[in-house]
């Protein structure tokens, strides 16, 4: 986020001068390519956090605590880290941790389901 703010602060005047001298089509192309990347820096990872929470919950409900405790523990720790980063407004790191938590929770879920299935007579 600091990088984005610094970039916006330093380049604000320069960008305005450049944009004023360009044709309107070039301004539209610039805006469509650059601005979404800049705004992504400051957007909270709401969807990623929700996905991670749901994946961890699904793994817990599938019995991962009994069948895949290591993977579940890693997923829970990653989710906790993501929530901590989110509260600190470190959105990029929170997004990365949330995605990692979801992936680890899905591993735990699959392991629990496969283990339960193989245990059936």
Number of domain units: 2
Mean residue pLDDT: 83
How does the overall form come out from the CA principal axes?
elongated
Number of E-type strands: 0
| Radius of gyration, CA atoms, in whole angstroms | 21 Å
Notes on the structure:
- By secondary structure, this protein is mainly alpha-helical.
- It folds into 2 domains: 2-40, no CATH class; 46-119.
- It has helices spanning 2-21, 24-40, 46-61, 64-67, 69-87, 91-119.
- Helix 1 packs antiparallel against helix 2, helix 3 (46-61) packs parallel to helix 6 (91-119) and helix 5 (69-87) packs antiparallel against helix 6 (91-119).
- The longest helix has 29 residues, at 91-119.
- The protein is elongated, with a radius of gyration of 21 Å.
């Amino acid at each position: 986020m600091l990088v984005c703010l610094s970039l916006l602060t330093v380049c604000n005047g320069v960008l305005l001068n450049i944009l004023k001298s360009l044709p309107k089509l070039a301004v539209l192309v610039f805006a469509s390519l650059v601005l979404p990347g800049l705004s992504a820096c400051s957007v909270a990872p709401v969807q990623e956090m929700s996905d991670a929470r749901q994946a961890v919950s699904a793994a817990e409900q599938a019995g991962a605590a009994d069948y895949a405790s290591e993977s579940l523990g890693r997923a829970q720790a990653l989710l906790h880290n993501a929530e901590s980063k989110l509260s600190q407004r470190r959105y990029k790191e929170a997004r990365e941790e949330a995605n990692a938590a979801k992936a680890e929770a899905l591993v735990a879920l699959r392991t629990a389901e496969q283990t339960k299935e193989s245990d059936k007579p």
